[in-house]
Amino acid sequence: MDTAVNSKAALKGAEFLVKDASPADVFIPEDFSEEQLMIKEMAETFIAREVTPVLDRLDKLEEGLMPSLLDKAGEQGLLGAAFPEELGGLGKDFITATLINEALGAGHSFSVAMAAHTGIGSLPILYFGTEAQKQKYIPKLASGEMKGAYALTEPNSGSDALSAKTTAKLSADGKHYILNGQKIWITNSGFADVFTVFAKVDGEQFTAFIVEKGTPGFTLGPEEHKMGIKGSSTRQIYFQDAEIPAENVLGQIGKGHLIAFNILNIGRLKLCAAALGGAKGSLDITISYAKTREQFKQPIANFGAIKHKLAEMAIRIWACETALYRTSQLIDQQEHELLAAGKAFNEALLGAAEEYAVECAMLKVNGSEVLDFVVDEGVQIHGGNGFSDEYVISKAYRDSRINRIFEGTNEINRLLTLDMTLKRAMKGKIDLMTPAMSVQKELMSIPDFGNDDESAFAAEKKLIANMKKAILLTAGAAAQKLMMKLESEQEILMNIADMAIETFVSESALLRLIKLTEQKGESATSLQADMVRTYLNDAADRVHKSGRDAINGFAEGDEQRMMLLGLKRFTKTAPFNTKDARRRIADKLISDGKYTF
């Protein structure tokens, strides 16, 4: 099924910084097909019927419960949706697979186990395995007959994955690799049947191996006692002269980093999808609570302070969702283009995800932080009850926290956002220099504060264009001033990454609004307009602060003053009554009793 809207004008990775996208070319959630919506409903029903009633039992790590849920999900095709039909999957497109991740995201610990199985637990074999390896494992992983896990992290190698100490040495007869070492924080380890394990051949060549449960010399530690996602099986694993068949090398010797990092690109986007599903679920239970909890002889949902919170939760969810599916379509389109060019299945999707690695990193940060914001405000609206285990929002609060650490910490992903963007520029994949020089020239000219464009959303379009200029101004000057020292100025890099994330999400939200308005008219999209204008109003302030902190970190004197004036010009917004806009949004949420945007 081809869900691409229009591949002619698709922007390449990180090109959003220097090129505009047409609303007609952007995929939005309102573009989902009937089939996609049916699949989403099936996944949501699965969570409601099979997972939500047993959340407490899952948290107690009831023996066999999580594997049985994965078995049931496999029977419904939810585990193998994105796997090729010839390998036992359903062969669904990337957008549909993302939608399933979102729908299952409200399943707390189950969502983590499922995502680990279908993502990092299976994809390394699907994308890098030999034909024999794929035939042996993928059909069973797709059905749930086998459960997958991924073993990369070690006690002294987290973000610095390549510093792993686990070793692999070829046996004298050449038939086995002898593994020795330790892995920690391995999701699904308590029940997984097959593990993708990373080790250094001869202590040097970082390599992936397929390791089966029951291999002599391969043992598990006890279950970890975690702050959240308590129902997710997390154990340390140990290798003591474990013999792994030589044919279980995954990919090429010394090329394990290609597997680790490419799989993470997809994993970051999928984590955003799951976080989005969790955020929607948490908002729904919070709305329900606010409508029924009475204080001062009326529901607390009537109070402006609560309406502000509910609306802001919805606004951030809507904006995050928009950026997620915009990127999903870009990856889907690129995959189709690479397949049409003769690339193999695995090369096509990996290549597409690599193309948009910058966007995947930004989504991971945004999605995890939107979820954290939503559950935090959810607890606040629940008041003292939010601190009680009897209310699901307390579980959501604890379960959320890991997402800012999973799949590369948010700090690492912020640093990667700018690092990968600059590398794309150095390789000639995007032209940052020309527009950056243009912005510098504009700073030296007399500013034009007029806006003769009276077309729909002209002011919003101009603001997005100016936010991009703010990024180019700040990043360009930092690169010129600091040169090779820039990579060690992590605070500045993270400031600029925050500017980029805010701008990408803001632009995505505006594009969705414009497309919706063109389809349905202004009166039918007035609340979406409230959401976008409120988000843009606040995003401009956040971009201004991040830019100011960055500029103050490397510039001084006249240069600093000029840049700060330029930054202020580029983040200027027209007055907008966000209070009333949020009240209108909240009234819709309260009337519907749940998030329905």
Q: What is the CATH superfamily classification of the largest domain?
A: Butyryl-CoA Dehydrogenase, subunit A, domain 3
Largest sheet, in brief, is:
8 strands, mixed
Secondary-structure element order, as H and E? HHHHHHHEEEEEEEEHEEHHHHHHHHHHH
- β-sheet strand percentage: 5-15%
Q: Round the Cα radius of gyration to an integer and report it.
A: 24 Å
Q: CA-to-CA gap between the ends?
A: 25 Å
Helical fraction equals 55-70%
Instruction: Supply the number of structural domains.
Output: 4
Computed structural class: alpha+beta
CATH architecture classification name of the largest domain? Up-down Bundle
**Outline type:** globular
Question: Total number of helical segments?
Answer: 19
CATH class categorisation of the largest domain = Mainly Alpha
Low-confidence stretches: 1-7
What is the residue-mean pLDDT, rounded to a whole number? Answer: 94
Number of DSSP strand runs: 10
Query: If you consult CATH, what is the topology of the largest domain?
Result: Butyryl-CoA Dehydrogenase, subunit A, domain 3
Describe the structure.
The chain is an alpha+beta fold. It has four domains: 15-147, Acyl-CoA dehydrogenase/oxidase, N-terminal domain (Butyryl-Coa Dehydrogenase, subunit A, domain 1); 149-250, Butyryl-CoA Dehydrogenase, subunit A, domain 2 (Beta Barrel); 256-412, Butyryl-CoA Dehydrogenase, subunit A, domain 3 (Up-down Bundle), CATH 1.20.140; 431-592, Butyryl-CoA Dehydrogenase, subunit A, domain 3. It has 19 helices and ten strands. It has helices at residues 34-51, 55-59, 65-75, 94-103, 109-118, 123-128, 131-143, 256-292, 304-340, 345-355, 357-382, 392-400, 410-426, 433-444, 458-482, 490-520, 526-552, 557-570, 578-592; strands spanning 148-151, 167-170, 176-187, 194-201, 205-212, 218-223, 234-245, 249-250, 294-295, 298-299. The strands form two sheets. Strands 1, 2, 3, 4, 5, 6, 7 and 8 form an eight-stranded mixed β-sheet that branches. Strand 2 and strand 3 form a beta hairpin. Helix 8 (256-292) runs antiparallel to helix 9 (304-340). The longest helix has 37 residues, at 256-292. The two termini are 25 Å apart. Residues 1-7 have low confidence and may be disordered.
